[in-house]
Amino acid sequence: MHILVIGAAGMIGRKFAESLVKKPLSADHASLRLTLADVIAPDTPAGFTGHCETLTCDLTQHGAAERLLNGRPDIIYHLAAIVSGEAEADFTKGYAVNLDGTRALFETIRQVNDREGWKPRVVFASSNAVFGGDFPDIISDDYILTPQTSYGTQKAICELLLADYRRRNIFDGIGLRLPTICVRPGKPNRAASGFFSGIIREPLVGQEAILPVPDTTRHWMTSPRSAVQFLRHAATLDLSLLGERPNLSMPALSITVGEQIAALRRIAGDKAVALIRRAPDEAIARIVAGWARGFDPQRALALGFKTEQSFDEIIQAHIDDELGGRIA
């Protein structure tokens, strides 16, 4: 099995590639071949002795998609994107990366399909940002897409492209609307949602964290562990079960900032909570206010996608996976 991961240097891409090495999707471990690509060179997963090609590649550049698809992978994971805050701040770059790069990939697959009949499976990482505006507290699977940010608009357009290319039998496609991933390890990125992780991640190692929104802010979150499992499950799922609607809202937890802090207190105590400093930021609050607060993802649940049952589990997963089971 040949798997191409675009965006493999990112946190989810890296963790997903590592999971493929630890627990292959196929029983035949020796048959696994990886192509890992990003705008910076990804690392080969530790312990992998099979064939792994790492590429530095920018999908917005002419010929990049052809280069990525040269090995005719069986499954293509398209995880690369400019994150929400950056896409809002840089209109041109957001559309170039999130939309034009995706279109170039899909169109190159079509061209090869026309010549050779090659039909890979494409797993596209979408986002809950495709919803916006005056939506209900709980969004059903039948709710229309009403993005209120450039990032959400770009992802919504790509979802429509994925559905159309799939309808025309160019590739087998599935789009996963990923919740906000929390707790993200490493340094903060430019995502407007970054503070959801920061108010947990930093206090756990004895560092101050900035909270720019009220404690009552509610959001839809899942762990990196669950996100990786979503991607793995999408590789083996019978895509005929999707019908004509290949884009799915993934399960997660609808949690307020106050509930996050309460979970942090239960696990790490008052000392950790005291490191959260409230510094209201109207720009971030305005962006976050336009995001979905909760979903009823019955289609994804029925298809076997799963997530945590409490935010305590999400914090503990971060402690176990990133801090060696210990906190400051």
Name a few traits of the molecule:
328 residues; alpha/beta; Rossmann fold; seven-stranded parallel β-sheet; three-stranded mixed β-sheet; 40% helix; globular
Quick overview:
The protein has helices at residues 11-22, 64-68, 84-89, 91-116, 150-167, 194-204, 224-236, 257-268, 270-273, 282-289, 298-302, 311-322; strands at 2-6, 33-38, 51-56, 75-78, 121-127, 139-140, 172-178, 180-181, 209-211, 218-222, 247-249, 253-256, 276-278, 295-296. It is of the alpha/beta class and 328 residues long.
Please give a structural write-up.
There is one protein chain. This protein has 328 residues and is an alpha/beta fold. It has a domain at 2-179 and 223-251: Rossmann fold (3-Layer(aba) Sandwich), CATH 3.40.50. It contains twelve helices and 14 strands. It has helices spanning 11-22, 64-68, 84-89, 91-116, 150-167, 194-204, 224-236, 257-268, 270-273, 282-289, 298-302, 311-322, and strands at residues 2-6, 33-38, 51-56, 75-78, 121-127, 139-140, 172-178, 180-181, 209-211, 218-222, 247-249, 253-256, 276-278, 295-296. The strands form four sheets. It has a seven-stranded parallel sheet with strand order 3-2-1-4-5-7-11, sandwiched between helices. It has a three-stranded mixed sheet with strand order 8-10-12. Strands 6-14 form a two-stranded parallel ribbon. Helix 1 (11-22) links the parallel strand 1 and strand 2. Helix 1 (11-22) packs across helix 7. The radius of gyration is 19 Å and the shape is globular. The N and C termini lie far apart (42 Å). The mean pLDDT is 95.
